[in-house]
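Key result, reporting period 2: structure in, sequence out.
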C-alpha cells in the first residue's frame, strides 16, 4: 500500500472515529419471570431506551488536541500506535531526505556537522519532550518512562540489530585482515569475510563511548544510595550533556578540515618512504653504514644521479622527474604538491633549489624519522637495515586507514537548479518537523493507553516498537550504503550509526534531563541507564581499536539486543531495582 493510500485510510478512520458513538445499555437486573432478559423488558423509565455509551468518553480516554481519535481497547490502541508510528516514520524520512538535499547544495561543515545530526535526532527528541510535558507532574512521571524506553531502545537497536545487519550485507573477502572492495567469494565464512572501515570511524566510536558520561553523573547518587543530591546530579548532568553537545557539533564542523590535513600529512609521509625506498634500491641497500648511521658518501652519489644537468642543485623539474619515476600508484598523488613539500623540507636557503649539502641533510633527517617510526630491523645475511621497508608499509596502512580524499573533500559540485533543490529541501525539513511535532504526543498517549489495556509496562512498548518508527529511515539508509561493499561506504555507514547514538546520548538526554529537572520528576531509571552503558561501552570499545570486523562480530551485536531487554526486565520487574 502506498503512503498516499495509507494516509487516506487513516483520514477516513480518523473522521469516522471523531463522531460520538452510542450503544444500547444492557441491564444486569434479574427478570421477574426468571427468563433471560433482553435488556429492556424490566425497564420502567422510557429514557433508558435511549442509546447511551456504557462509559463516558471523559472517563475512558482523552482525545489528543481535543479531536484526534482515542480508544481504551487493545486492538484500537494497537492500530493507533501503527498509524502514529508510521507518521513518525514519514517525518524521519522527510527529515533525512531534506537533509541530503541540503547537503548537496551547501556541503559539509556547518550543515553536515551541526544541523544534520540534530535533525536526525529530532523525532526521538520530540517524543521524549512530549512524554514529560503531559498533564500534572504525576502524569508526566508515569509517561516519562515512554521517553526513557525510546532513548534506550533507539540506542540499543542502532548498535545491535542495525549494526549487525550492516556487517552481514556489507561483507567482503578479507585479505591480510583488510576487506577487498566489491569481492564476496567467501560467502558467509565467519573469519574470511567481513567489513573494513577507516580510522575516522574508530574516532566516532570513541566519541560515542565518551558520550555516556552524563549517564554516569546522573546515576551517581543512586549508586551511593543518596537521596539528597539527586536533583543536583540531574542539573550537573544536564550542563555536562549540553557542553558535550556543543563540543561534538564543533568537532563535526571542523572534522572535514582536520581530515584533509591528516590525509595530506599521510601522503607526504608516503612520498618520503617512497623516495627512501627508491634511493635504497639504487644504492643496492647501502644507505647506511655498518653501525646504522646514514652513509653520506652514498647519498652524495645518489644526488649526482638525480642532478641531470650537473649544476650542483636540484630544480623542481628534476625533483618532479624523480617522483614520476618512482610511480606512486598506491595513492592519488598530486605531483606538484609533492615537489613543493620536498623542496620545503630540503631547501633551507629558500632559493627554490636543493643544493647537495641540503639534499644530504634532508635525506639524513628522513632516515632518522623512518628509523624512529619503523624500527631498526637488521636484515639477515645482508648487513643492512630494513626499517625503511617497514616505514613504507606503515605509511601505506596509515593512508588507507584515513580513507580516500573524496571523504574529506568539502567542495560541492555544481548541481542543476540549486534554487529549486534548496526550496524542496526546506519544505521537506519543515514537513518532517511539523509531522514529528504534531503526532509525537498522540503516539505517546496511544502507547500509554495500550500499556493500561494490556498491563504491559509502557517502557517495553517504547523500547521495542517506537525505535522501529523513529530509526527506520536511518536503518534503511545504513543497510543500503553498507550493501555497496566498499570501505568508504562502510566507514560512512558505521560513522553515522555511532553519530546517531552520540546524539541520543547528548541531545536527547539533554531534553530528558531538562524535563526531569524543570518539572521536579524523580530519576528512577537505574536499569535502563545500565543497559545503555553496557551496550555503548561494549560496542564502543569493540569498534574503537579495530578497523576490520569479520562476519562473526555480528553475533556479538545480535546477542546484546535480547540480553539488554532481558536485563531490564529482570532488574525492574523481578528484583524491583529502580
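The corresponding designed sequence is given below.
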Amino acid at each position: 500500500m502506498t503512503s498516499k493510500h495509507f494516509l487516506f485510510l487513516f483520514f477516513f478512520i480518523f473522521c469516522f472515529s471523531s463522531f460520538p458513538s452510542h450503544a444500547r445499555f444492557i441491564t444486569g437486573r434479574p427478570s421477574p419471570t426468571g427468563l433471560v432478559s433482553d435488556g429492556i423488558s424490566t425497564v420502567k423509565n422510557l429514557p433508558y431506551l435511549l442509546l447511551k455509551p456504557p462509559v463516558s468518553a471523559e472517563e475512558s480516554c482523552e482525545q489528543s488536541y481535543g479531536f484526534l481519535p482515542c480508544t481504551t481497547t487493545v486492538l484500537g490502541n494497537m492500530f493507533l500506535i501503527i498509524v502514529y508510528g508510521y507518521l513518525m516514520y514519514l517525518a524521519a524520512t522527510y527529515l533525512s531526505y531534506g537533509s541530503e538535499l541540503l547537503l548537496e547544495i551547501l556541503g559539509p561543515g556547518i550543515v553536515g556537522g551541526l544541523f544534520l545530526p540534530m535533525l536526525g535526532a529530532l523525532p526521538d527528541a520530540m517524543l521524549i519532550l512530549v512524554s514529560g510535558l503531559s498533564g500534572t507532574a504525576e502524569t508526566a512521571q508515569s509517561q516519562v518512562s515512554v521517553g526513557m524506553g525510546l532513548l534506550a531502545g533507539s540506542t540499543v537497536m542502532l548498535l545491535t540489530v542495525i549494526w549487525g545487519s550492516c556487517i552481514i550485507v556489507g561483507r567482503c573477502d578479507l585479505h591480510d585482515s583488510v576487506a577487498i572492495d566489491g569481492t564476496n567469494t567467501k560467502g558467509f565464512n565467519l573469519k574470511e569475510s567481513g567489513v573494513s572501515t577507516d580510522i575516522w570511524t574508530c574516532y566516532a566510536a570513541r566519541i560515542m563511548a565518551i558520550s555516556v558520561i552524563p549517564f554516569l553523573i546522573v546515576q551517581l547518587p543512586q549508586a551511593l544510595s543518596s537521596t539528597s543530591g539527586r536533583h543536583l546530579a540531574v542539573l550537573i548532568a544536564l550542563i555536562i550533556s549540553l557542553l558535550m553537545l556543543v563540543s561534538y557539533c564543533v568537532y563535526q564542523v571542523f572534522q572535514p578540515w582536520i581530515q584533509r590535513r591528516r590525509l595530506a600529512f599521510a601522503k607526504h609521509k608516503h612520498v618520503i618512504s617512497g623516495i627512501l625506498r627508491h634511493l635504497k634500491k639504487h644504492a643496492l641497500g647501502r644507505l647506511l653504514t655498518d653501525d646504522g648511521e646514514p652513509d653520506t658518501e652514498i647519498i652524495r652519489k645518489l644526488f649526482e644521479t638525480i642532478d641531470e644537468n650537473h649544476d650542483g642543485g636540484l630544480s623542481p623539474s628534476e625533483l618532479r622527474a624523480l617522483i614520476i619515476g618512482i610511480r606512486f600508484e598506491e595513492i592519488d598523488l598530486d605531483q606538484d604538491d609533492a615537489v613543493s613539500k620536498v623542496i620545503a623540507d630540503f631547501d633551507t636557503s629558500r632559493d627554490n633549489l636543493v643544493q647537495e649539502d641540503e639534499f644530504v641533510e634532508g635525506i639524513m633527517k628522513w632516515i632518522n624519522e623512518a628509523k624512529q617510526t619503523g624500527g631498526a630491523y637488521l636484515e639477515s645475511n645482508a648487513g643492512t637495515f630494513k626499517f625503511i621497508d617497514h616505514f613504507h608499509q606503515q605509511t601505506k596502512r596509515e593512508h588507507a586507514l584515513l580513507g580516500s580524499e573524496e571523504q574529506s573533500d568539502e567542495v560541492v559540485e555544481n548541481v542543476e537548479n540549486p534554487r529549486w533543490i534548496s526550496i524542496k529541501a526546506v519544505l521537506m525539513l519543515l514537513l518532517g518537523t511539523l509531522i514529528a511535532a504534531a503526532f509525537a504526543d498522540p503516539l505517546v498517549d496511544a502507547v500509554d493507553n495500550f500499556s493500561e489495556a494490556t498491563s504491559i509496562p509502557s517502557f517495553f512498548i517504547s523500547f521495542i516498537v517506537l525505535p522501529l518508527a523513529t530509526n527506520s529511515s536511518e536503518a534503511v539508509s545504513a543497510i543500503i550504503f553498507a550493501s555497496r561493499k566498499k570501505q568508504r561506504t562502510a566507514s560512512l555507514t558505521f560513522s553515522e550509526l555511532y553519530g546517531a547514538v552520540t546524539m541520543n546520548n547528548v541531545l536527547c538526554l539533554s531534553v530528558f534531563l531538562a524535563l526531569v529537572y524543570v518539572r521536579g520528576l524523580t530519576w528512577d531509571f537505574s536499569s535502563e541507564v545500565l543497559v545503555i552503558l553496557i551496550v555503548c561501552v561494549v560496542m564502543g570499545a569493540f569498534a574503537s581499536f579495530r578497523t576490520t570486523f569479520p562476519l562473526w562480530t555480528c553475533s556479538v551485536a545480535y546477542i546484546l539486543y535480547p540480553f539488554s531487554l532481558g536485563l531490564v526486565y529482570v532488574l525492574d520487574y523481578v528484583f524491583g531495582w529502580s
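Confidence is low (pLDDT under 50) at residues 1-59, 376-384, 405-413. The CA atoms of residues 126 and 440 lie 6 Å apart. This case is discussed further under Risks and Mitigation.
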